[in-house]
Specification:
heterodimer; A: alpha+beta; Alpha-Beta Plaits; Ubiquitin-like (UB roll); 5 domains; four-stranded antiparallel β-sheet; 9 helices; 22 strands; 44% strand; disordered C terminus; B: alpha+beta; Immunoglobulin-like; 2 helices; 59% strand
Chain lengths: 407, 88
């Protein structure tokens, strides 16, 4: 069995020799240094395997012996090549397919990021791309150590990182750093500063020294409650630093503008959807299939099927267009109806702008008209919590949290 | 001359089959036998294979005897070997 592979490459045949004394045939071949194997003896013939090169020699050896040689079966690469010599394109195609398969299996086709909660995946992919890891790159040119170092350097919240290949995908496993718990935060000396411009509505200080009172106007960054306390001890004024804590509410004004047409054309879909196919060859688009009727209104949805997975921009592939037919129907609003619609829009915009714990005290509307259009300037009066902690740097005597009230 | 050669080779410890063309039979169990330095195949039957060597005939008898491969200087026989006889 171990010598069958070389024999396959050289080619061999199984022959049947009729007539003559079988022992003499074997001896003649053996003395001519011809290797015979799988010799089977039958009543009137002998069968054996012989190599292709030796087969051409047996004619001269068996000359004059009145024997008949018959080839029963042919084995080996020479016969295979001969069989497919008229199908060169087929053989070349198989070879090319295998080559392309080998090349593509060594290219990065996908990059996956796992384990991220706070860190944006796009940022990780952008840093990895700058370090040399991106889709479409051969795996042997990527320096994974460089990518790992770049990620640690550029993104500070990574505690542990692993990059490994899985087939044609590259997986990035990340463990993020642990965010400080509130227990540790509450021991840090800090001030409370305004995070937006507002009028102080109410302030209840639990810890620290308040610097503002109700009806004061504050700008973003102004200190509202200070964590620095002056303490008198043995006739000396000492600085003491605490974690400032207070409930501060501020009043703000939100300005929103909206417009509404008194005559509106509304789309009503007929339910007919037409699909068309185009071929995009980068230098131009060519229509394959066109089905939609002319003189109708359509809303188009395009889907690109790229034939080149390595190029991000859609430049080579099929474009499947879906056209949804619609009719325009005119709707005329009265002024009151238009105003109601505008107010609804204003309230929707306000809810998008503010957080859940914001109270809307009042909304005022100021209407104006321009032709067939009605406009409104909305002013919303809001009360919401303001203030964010800001750590006090370079505290000489840091204190743990004290929650007693300081006037 | 032959006996002198034998004496020299045994003194120097050279294998006899290499220089004296004496047949070398390697038997594996009772199923395989390889004979090197043979001259010709005299008889080939399913129950008997007779081989001519320098020292005489070697008759291998058994059941389902078959020559697996044959070369100029080596013959490989398989089958159920029952008897190996050396004769002139």
């Amino acid at each position: 069995m171990s010598y069958n592979i070389p024999k396959f490459f050289r080619g061999y045949v199984r022959i049947r020799i009729f007539g003559f004394q079988r022992e003499k045939i074997i001896n003649r071949f053996a003395t001519s240094s011809i290797l015979l194997w799988r010799i089977i003896l039958k009543s009137n013939y002998i069968e054996m395997n012989i190599s292709l090169t030796d087969f051409w020699r047996i004619k001269s050896i068996l000359k004059g012996t009145h024997t008949k040689v018959k080839i029963i079966k042919k084995y080996g690469l020479p016969f295979l090549i001969n069989k497919y010599r008229g199908r060169k394109i087929f053989v070349i195609g198989i070879f090319l397919t295998l080559t392309v398969l080998m090349i593509l299996s060594n290219i990065v086709l996908d990059i996956n990021v796992y384990g991220t909660e706070r860190i944006d995946d796009e940022k990780i992919l952008a840093v990895a791309k700058a370090a040399g890891l991106s889709k479409g790159k051969p795996e042997f040119v990527i320096n994974y150590d460089n990518v790992v170092n770049s990620l640690y350097r550029e993104i500070g919240d990574i505690a542990w990182l692993n990059i490994y290949q899985k087939g044609t995908s590259v997986n990035i496993d990340i463990v993020e750093t642990v965010v400080k718990t509130s227990e540790s935060l509450e021991s840090t000396p800090c001030d409370i500063v305004a995070d937006k411009k507002a009028i102080i509505h109410d302030i209840v200080t639990l810890s620290g020294v308040p610097k503002v009172k109700a009806k004061d106007v504050v700008n973003e960054g102004d200190i509202l409650v200070s964590g620095e306390i002056d303490v008198e001890k043995d006739g000396e004024i000492l600085k003491k630093y605490v974690h400032a804590n207070a409930k501060i509410e501020g009043k703000m004004y939100l300005f929103i503008k909206e417009e509404q047409e008194l005559e509106v054309a509304k789309k009503t879909y007929t339910g007919n959807v037409y699909r068309e196919l185009q071929l995009d060859l980068h230098f131009g688009k060519f229509d394959f299939i066109k089905t939609r009727p002319q003189n109708s209104l359509f809303e188009k949805k395009e889907r690109y099927i790229s034939l080149d997975p390595f190029i991000k921009e859609n430049k080579f592939g099929f474009v499947l267009n879906e056209y949804a037919e619609y009719r325009l129907e005119k709707t005329i609003y009265t002024i009151d109806e238009a105003k109601r619609r505008l107010q609804k829009k204003i309230y929707e915009n306000i809810s998008l702008e503010v957080s859940d714990d914001t109270r809307i005290i009042d909304v005022r509307f100021d209407y104006g008209f321009k032709g067939k259009r009605i406009m409104v300037n909305g002013i919303a009066v809001l009360i919401e919590k303001i203030g964010q902690n800001k750590t006090i740097e370079n505290t000489e005597t840091p204190e743990t949290s004290e929650t007693k009230d300081v006037p | 001359m032959e006996s002198l050669k034998k004496k020299i080779y045994s003194a120097v410890d050279i294998p006899k089959e290499t220089f004296l063309n004496i047949p070398l039979a390697t038997i594996v169990g009772n199923e395989e036998i390889v004979i090197e330095n043979y001259k010709a195949v005299l008889d080939y039957k399913p129950d008997t294979i007779r081989i001519n060597t320098k020292i005489g005939h070697v008759k291998i008898s058994g059941k389902n005897m078959n020559i697996k491969y044959i070369r100029k200087d080596e013959i490989f026989i398989t089958g159920i070997i029952k008897n190996i006889q050396y004769g002139s």
